[in-house]
Design brief:
By secondary structure, the chain is mainly alpha-helical. The protein has 2 domains: 2-61 and 178-192, 3-Layer(aba) Sandwich (Glutaredoxin), CATH 3.40.30; 63-173, Glutathione S-transferase Yfyf (Class Pi), Chain A, domain 2. Helix content is 54%, strand content 5%. Residues 17-54 form the GST N-terminal domain.
């Protein structure tokens, strides 16, 4: 979403993580997405790094300024730390031995409650406009919801549910989430966005 907002183009290669192409793991052995190879040869393989790189090139809505706010830094740190740790164990509990899925779900809820409280009475976390923080944490909150949609939707966190719905229904999100054909060696180049 930051690539679209900053009007930065890149070559897009749609992959399935269970069948990673060698060219991807050669660039980034950790084998997760995103992976962005810059013209300089530097590889960015963390979402926040890609967001910052794109917005440093062009930041029409001053998202980087909002990202540097102490509260944004704190929430992003919690998202990328405890929340993501527990989300992985909740969503992918079969990958871990002796995991109590419900305990990890309950730990995730602590962050959801905190976001819910931050959203009172605002549409987005900082104010009435989407910010770096919203875009940085929304994909993980979305994954948490997807793990058990019916259960999530029954929870009392109305502010988070409205916030997530607004972001998921936005043109920015839907442009980002367009499905592309799986990439294979020798395919024609696809430029995103």
């Amino acid at each position: 979403m930051a690539l679209i907002k900053s009007q930065q183009s890149c070559v897009l290669r749609e992959v399935i993580l269970r069948d990673k192409p060698k060219s991807m793991t050669d660039l980034s052995p950790k084998g997760t997405v995103p992976v962005l190879l810059l013209e300089s040869g530097e590889v960015l393989d963390e979402s926040l790094d890609v967001m910052c790189w794109a917005l440093e090139k062009n930041d029409p809505e001053n998202w980087l300024r909002s990202q540097k706010a102490k509260r944004s830094e704190d929430l992003i740190k919690k998202n990328d730390g405890d929340f993501k740790f527990h989300l992985d164990r909740y969503k992918y509990s079969s990958r871990y031995k002796e995991i109590n899925k419900k305990e990890h779900r309950d730990e995730c809820l602590k962050f959801i409650k905190e976001i819910n409280d931050e959203l009172k009475p605002k549409e987005y976390i900082h104010d009435k406009n989407v910010s770096f923080l919203d875009i940085a944490i929304m994909p993980f909150v979305r994954q948490f919801r997807i793990a058990d949609t019916e259960w999530f939707d029954s929870q009392p966190y109305e502010n988070v549910k409205i916030w997530l719905k607004n972001l998921i229904e936005s043109n920015l999100f839907n442009t980002t989430m367009v499905k592309y054909p799986l990439w294979k060696e020798d395919d024609e180049i696809i430029i995103f966005p």
